[in-house]
Design a protein that fits this description.
Length: about 100
């Protein structure tokens, strides 16, 4: 899976409606989503990148793998991931308007 496909998977979580393929633009604008990442703090950014496998040739990491790397619980990583998705969704919707 390439980076664009990974970002599209994340974008599908941000959309209030199912995405459509419109004039060759599948799911979301890759660059817009990358720009939205700027609202996350450094830890949220890295956890989001690790969970979704963004900007990496590696596969996405599990919550357990990320938790072990950060020295946090799986639940705390899940909470941070969900908070990040909320921030991204809010920013994404603002930029679409």
């Amino acid at each position: 899976m390439n980076n664009e496909e990974k970002y599209k998977r994340l974008a599908s979580r941000l959309s209030p409606e199912p995405w459509e393929d419109v004039e060759g633009s599948i799911y979301a604008d890759y660059n817009l989503l990358r720009e939205c990442m700027s609202v996350l703090d450094p830890r949220e950014t890295e956890i989001t990148r690790q969970y979704w496998g963004l900007d990496s040739a590696e596969d996405p990491m599990t919550l357990d793998q990320i938790a072990n790397q950060w020295g946090l619980t799986r639940e705390r990583i899940r909470q941070l991931k969900e908070r990040s998705i909320g921030k991204l969704k809010e920013e994404y919707e603002l930029r679409l308007d």
